[in-house]
Amino acid sequence: MNERAKSIDLGPLPELIGYVLRRAQLAVFQDFFASFAPFDIRPAQFSVLTIIERNPGLTQTRVAEALGIKRTNFVGMLDELEKRGLAERRQARDKRSYALYLTADGVALMRKLRPVLKAHESRMITRVGEEGRDRLVALLTEIVDGRARNVRAVRDGKASRALRPGSAET
Amino acid sequence: MNERAKSIDLGPLPELIGYVLRRAQLAVFQDFFASFAPFDIRPAQFSVLTIIERNPGLTQTRVAEALGIKRTNFVGMLDELEKRGLAERRQARDKRSYALYLTADGVALMRKLRPVLKAHESRMITRVGEEGRDRLVALLTEIVDGRARNVRAVRDGKASRALRPGSAET
């Protein structure tokens, strides 16, 4: 935020959990962007590459689901990673979807990114301290799990039919 | 996250501040989406409408800056709000930019959204408790203000050598 921005009345925004979360996320991503720019890797790409590295052969749909990325956005991301020779799609066993793998270049890149990630994370921890980090991660996990509780409650109630996996396709 | 997603190995992601922040932000936004869907208002649109409401006549550039929204994305957002008759651009005094205002419909909508926002925020607070919320907002604010904090840490010699700006050159 610059000097001019400071004089703007933000109203209730700075006390809203969603707004402050979003600002903090953007601040952390800004450091990530700067750190990973030499490798041309954005946070979502890093997450996708990590999931594929850890779970070779996982389908496109499940990787997207695991990261909460919309299917249409995910297809574009994968196209890019594939074009850059970092990941590849192979026809999955059920022939209806694609299984994802890192290429040798993808594996090599992930190895190079490890120290970059460590340095980025160290800078973020410096901002709140080790204890602050632990508390922050715990609180954020409660926020995420709170949502899971709500989804379960909905699934166990009226909306169960709509949420059953595969119900839309089959 | 659903049952199938749970079996996926996320590697280091769940302990990375940026990743957990992003997941929490998405979880909170999901509740926001559901709450505000009847009004067809997304979080970024709500922030933009709030800033315009609180600062009538502010230029397009400054609103975008205040919210950390990229200029190209912001133009599209404004086009939509204008098309829907909620906000309007007027030529700014310096003739090189646009000043933004809510329309009467925009003002009326913001009034209707107030209880919706309050209910959404109450649900989010329920997930971490009042004290947890205060701690969370404080920690997130430290993350946002982190740049200044890092600079102080470096000055006081508390940061590791890797964090010292220019240490590679000197």
Q: Can you lay out the helices and strands and say which pair or pack?
A:
The structure is a homodimer of 170-residue chains.
Chain A: H1 3-6, H2 17-36, H3 43-54, H4 60-67, H5 71-83, E1 87-91, E2 98-102, H6 104-155, H7 160-163
Antiparallel strand pairs in A: 1-2
Detailed description of the structure:
Two copies of one chain form a homodimer. Chain A is mostly helical and 170 residues long. Chain A has seven helices and two strands, in the order αααααββαα. Chain A has helices at residues 3-6, 17-36, 43-54, 60-67, 71-83, 104-155, 160-163, and strands at 87-91, 98-102. In chain A, strands 1-2 form a two-stranded antiparallel sheet. In chain A, strand 1 (87-91) and strand 2 (98-102) form a beta hairpin. The N and C termini of chain A lie far apart (50 Å). Chains A and B meet through helix 2, helix 3, helix 4 and helix 6 of A and helix 1, helix 2, helix 3, helix 4 and helix 6 of B.
List keywords for this structure.
homodimer, 170 residues, two-stranded antiparallel sheet, 7 helices, 2 strands, 6% strand, disordered C terminus
How much strand content do the residues of chain A show? 5-15%
Structural class computed from helices and strand pairing of chain A = mainly alpha
Total number of helices of chain A: 7
The counted number of beta strands of chain A is: 2
**Outline of chain A, from the CA principal axes?**
globular
Low-pLDDT stretches of chain A: 158-170
Measured distance between first and last alpha carbons of chain A: 50 Å
Order of helices and strands of chain A: HHHHHEEHH
Indicate the mean pLDDT of chain A.
86
Q: Into which percent range does the helicity of residues of chain A fall? A: 55-70%
